[in-house]
Amino acid sequence: MTYQFDFGWLIESLPVLFKGIRITVQLILIGAVFGVALGIACAWVRALGPKWLKPVVAAYVELIRNTPFLIQLFFIFFGLPSLGIRMSELSAANLAMIVNLGAYSCEIIRAGIQATPRGQFEAGASLAMTPFQAFWYVVLVPALQRIWPALSSQIVIVMLGSAVVSQIAAEDLTFAANFIQSRNFRAFETYTVSTLIYLALAILLRQLLAGLGWMLFPRKASR
Amino acid sequence: MTEFSFWDILRNLLLAARWTVVLSLVSFIGGGIVGAALLFLRIGGQRWARLLSRGYIQLFQGTPLLMQLFLAFFGLGLFGIDVPAWLAACVALILWTAAFLAEIWRGCVESIAKGQWEASASLGMGYLQQMRYVILPQALKVAVPPTVGFSVQVVKGTALTSIIGFVELSKAGSIVTNATFQPFTVYGLVALIYFALCWPLSKSSQLLERKLNVAHRNH
Predict the structure, then answer these.
(1) Per CATH, the architecture of B6-212 is what?
(2) Domains of chain A with CATH codes
(3) What is the ipTM of this complex?
(4) Closest approach of chain B CAs to the CA of A116, in angstroms?
(5) Euclidean distance between CA atoms B32 and B94, whole angstroms
(6) Where are the alpha helices (H) located in chain A, listed in sequence order?
(7) Is the pLDDT reported for residue A67 higher than 90?
(8) I need a labelling partner for A204 at 20 to 30 A (CA). Which of A122, A180, B188, B196 fits?
């Protein structure tokens, strides 16, 4: 192997890389917040929601969980304009991530809800809670606490999966790496650097979510 | 200009779907073999082997599959090999699958009670004998549903190989779209074909889980 590694391009490419990192972080923050919110709403429908809505949510969850994120992204960005729904690359990327995480987190949260004993529901009702209050305080919060690790890893997986949004020209970290390597012809070094940045982001995000878990679910009498 | 009928589109996509199936099978089988080797390192006695395998798993689980594909595509080229897209795709997918399978199987092995290890050790069994006669037969039962479930991720993972130019279902979708200007139909069909491949796997994973009654054994 006579290849000479060269990282001299790194300094002048830093602004491009940082812009990419910013977009990736922004995508996952928006995606995580709204995706989990959508997941909670769907989990509520499947546990307590109106009967006619249940099969719709079930179909949505199955459809998303059994198709690649790339195709969902292409469908939203290239397919929906045929129906007159047009959006920017970033909005399409955000929407795809929210829809994707929504389906996965629905399934994860539902598993947490199923592990809640039925009696707790009835106990909530006997304390004169409305069904919504009982769902929120008695069922959802302990369920979230229980499945928080699974939900955290799913959010990290969606963050790593977001690398493909570069394919619809959303200017995330991978897009930045593609741009840089097309200028410096140092593909291997460029992708090594961006891979390491993704690794750092994944570790950071995992720590952040673990910290958030500590804040949201202080260890008190509930266990 | 040629007109494309619905049937033309579907036929082309189905022909390309064969490559998705082949690539999935190669990745899954290859990943299973490498993953089993990693598993033995991960739970074996040697400290360096445990650390090495843990580092490998964290590296591959903590970076995007797309980046791994790029690195395989451009990295193998550094050794002076002319890398075709299918080779880079196979290498990256096998390594990626191995990391996840090793971690899934580690969970299964660790779910076997510690007393089983101690009991078999007290019978004078060596490490390989313990694994072969005591641990693996029990762990295998626990491992089947999540392994089948993960195969869905492998099928979906193959979609990314379209980005480095391997012509499978997703790439065929892009090519057919560019020829027909019907993205809604084409990507809709592509999604449905993926669904037809993945859904039976998801469902059988759920059924197996219920049948082997693994998930709620402790309740």
Answers:
(1) Orthogonal Bundle (1.10)
(2) 10-216 (1.10.3720.10)
(3) 0.89
(4) 12
(5) 8
(6) 10-48, 53-65, 69-74, 89-114, 118-126, 131-133, 141-161, 173-184, 187-216
(7) yes
(8) A180
